Amino acid sequence: MNLNSKSISKIEKIEKGWSLDEKYYVEDEHLGKLLLRISEHTSYERKQQEFTLMKLVGLQDVRMSTPLEFWKEEDKLSALYTWCDGDELGEVVSDFSESLQYKLGYIAGDYLYKIHSIPINKRLDWKQLYGRKAKKKIEMYRMYDIPFEGAEDFIGYIEKNFDLLEHRDTSFLHGDYHVGNMIVSSDNNLSIIDFDRFDYGDPWEDFNRIVWSAQRSPAFACGQIHGYFKQEPPELFFQLLAFYMAVNAIGAIPWAVAFGDVQVLMKQAHDVLMWYDHMNTIIPSWYQKIEDFQ
After folding, report:
1. In what order do the strands lie in the sheet with 76-82?
2. In order of start, what are the domains of the chain with their CATH numbers?
3. pLDDT per residue over 209-247, tens digit each?
4. Alpha-carbon distance 277 to 255, whole Å?
5. E strands, 65-143, in order
6. Which InterPro entries match (predicted)?
7. pLDDT in tens, 160-218
């Protein structure tokens, strides 16, 4: 397969998102609608791995931006994918009925379970690896000296619960799984995009971005959890979800000072704090049981 400039009828740069890749929407007379991602050659090994893993995801019956071709040219890497027609789910999910929000969340949860089922030859000391990461985020928060009422509630919960990280399984992770990286078509089919933050670790850590989904649609967030477990989750899941969301909230604040929107992420941290009653409960206030949606 070759992307020939002579057969390209349209190409537009995509400015949305926080990825370091350059992204382009392409229309080709022979290949149809495509996504072209261009990255630095220094990331060759990781980008090749991302492309290969995405092919494996596609074999799991997950609707997605399917990888087509990967190549190196001079000092750039290029990867070509199918285009997912539709709207970013985060922008439209609140327009849908609660039952459709829940249904789409359930599908997203089922997809995530399939992503985590891909066999990998890795075994991590998760307590050591993620524990070090969590401690570093706490250090960064304190180093930046950013006032956030309730920060010590997050930190206290994290520091008391490092033992939750013991004996966790290792799986392939999407790394940024939320409604902003999902596309919904006009006939309500869901597709997953943007695997460039993929990682390996405790599969339940992939729920740490559910905060973005729950802010827009609690029904979707509940559906995602139910679609993943197909039953009520164990208590350990909720304990770890609270842990990962606390780490994410603390870590996002100094990150936002350097790279992102401080007010958005401060608001998000505040929401997490309220959902967990200042970390006095392990079940977020938006969560509803499966029976509540039947």
Report:
1. 8-14, 22-28, 32-40, 76-82, 67-73
2. 5-82 (3.30.200.20), 87-293 (3.90.1200.10)
3. 999 999 999 999 999 999 999 999 999 999 999 999 999
4. 24
5. 67-73, 76-82, 87-88
6. Aminoglycoside_PTrfase, Kinase-like_dom_sf
7. 999 999 999 999 999 999 999 999 999 999 999 999 999 999 999 999 999 999 999 99
